[in-house]
Amino acid sequence: MTATLTPDILSALEAQAIELPSWAFGNSGTRFKVFGTPGTPRDPYEKIADAAQVHEHTALAPTVALHIPWDKVASYDDLRAHAEGLGVALGTVNSNTFQDDDYKFGALTHEDDRIRRKAIDHHLECIDIMDATGSRDLKIWLAEGSNYPGQNDLRARQDRLQDSLQQIYARIGENQRLVLEYKFFEPAFYHTDVPDWGTSYVQVAALGERAMVCLDTGHHAPGTNIEFIVMQLLRLGKLGSFDFNSRFYADDDLIVGAADPFQLFRILDQVIRGGGLNNPDVAFMLDQCHNLEAKIPGQIRSVLNVQEMTARALLIDREALAAAQSANDVLGANAIYMDAFQTDVRPALAEWRESRGLPADPMAAFAASGYLERIEADRVGGVQAGWGA
Ligand code: PSV
Ligand code: MN
Ligand code: MN
To answer: Known PANTHER family for this protein (predicted)?
Structure first.
């Protein structure tokens, strides 16, 4: 089946915005090997220039998330002007409490007040940066937990976490938000201090209205019904953002929609059902790394995957579905749902892109632009930016 996209669907698609992570453009890898890639950015300015390419070819990615200290610069006003000059804006600021020896046994949950203070101060510095960049969201992912039963007092760590978050939240501005990400394991393997949406919800609900949950699609146990969590968080008004990526086994950080496009469709269905599409309260972001494939095309493919699955989810005949559901027509309801998923939206999207002055095939247009060859030639020497740099 091929699609006819109605004006309503097209205007919803036109409003879609997906934030790119600066770290997708730097080198990254597994704990076995980080492969260097010719043309990789040497500093945050070059990462933003690469991100702007994705937006130029797709009109889908108007903002870039920063990671501090990886993206530390002398002047954030200057970085902001650089981004704006390239047609993009600076987005979410991600804190980092996972690469400092002091944080070996925790950061916001640490027993030692000196270390906990240092971790809180890092977040206050991130908020100062947000003031300069014009960013709205502070995203916190914590690498905290323990490896062995009995190693730590689980409950005391929750209490210290709440106290630390309160101190950070007190500095969050009127138009800013604190977004807390959860992850069920890794780098700690016995327990993590924010392992699931429930813990994140409990922690942010105690802070206030401007504290929300971040759902990273790769941070759940295999078999988890992620769209159910999406539904519940939207229902509670606490879904602040998505970190989109895909996974086969653990936190693989692969291209969103690559492993299981149907799961992405189901998630986007619940986003639409819950009023989360193009809702400023629900930020769409990618959290991915490209270790083997070229990074800019990897990001272009990713935002297109989100766009395609959004278009398919918008095709669900909701009236017919509701009628079938009320009639307990099990197979009828499932068929309506699957009809939308099985519809090929690619030709219609290509035509629509062209009608807006965008390339029908953004992957091919980027490849033909010569940008990759240019950066490969220009960025010889210097230190490539990446995880930890
Ligand atoms: C580590 O799991 C992680 O992938 C989290 O998902 C964060 O969002 C990201 O790193 C950047 O800090
Ligand atoms: Mn994430
Ligand atoms: Mn992750």
So the answer is: L-RHAMNOSE ISOMERASE (PTHR30268)
| Residue written as token pair 């969201």 | 137
**Mean pLDDT, 10 residues at a time, over the chain (389 residues)?**
91 98 90 88 97 98 98 98 98 97 98 98 98 98 98 98 99 98 97 98 98 98 98 98 97 97 99 98 97 96 98 98 98 98 98 98 98 95 61
Rounded to the nearest angstrom, the distance between the alpha carbon of 244 and the centre of ligand 2 is 8
Whether 26 contacts 386, CB under 8 Å: yes
pTM over 0.90: yes
Say how many Å lie between the CA of residue 57 and the centre of ligand 2: 25
Task: Decide whether any atom of ligand 1 lies within 6 Å of the 242 Cβ.
Answer: no
Q: Is 245 in the pocket of ligand 1 (CB under 6 A)?
A: no
Ligand 1 atom with least separation from CA of 186: 2
Question: Domain locations in the chain?
Answer: 17-302
Residue 303 and residue 18 in contact, taking contact as beta carbons nearer than 8 Å: yes
Q: Distance, CA 249 to ligand 3 centroid (Å)?
A: 12
Q: What is the DSSP letter of 385?
A: P
Q: 17-302 has which fold?
A: TIM Barrel (3.20.20)
pLDDT in tens, 128-142: 999 999 999 999 999
Structure-token pair, residue 19: 């934030």
User: Distance between CA atoms of 133 and 239, rounded to whole angstroms?
Assistant: 23
Is-contact 288 346, C-beta < 8 A?
no
| Burial class of residue 95, CB neighbours in 10 A (0-12, 13-18, 19+) | buried
> Does an H or E element contain 199, and which?
helix 197-205
CA–CA–CA angle 290, 301, 365 (5° rounding) = 115
Q: Is the ipTM of this complex over 0.90?
A: yes
Most informative mutation of 139, 141, 183, 200 for ligand 1 (most atoms within 8 A of CB) = 141
* SS3 assignment, position 347: helix
- Find all residues with CB under 8 Å of 311, minimum gap 6, and list them: 3, 5, 9, 13, 345, 348, 349
Q: Which amino acid is at 13?
A: L
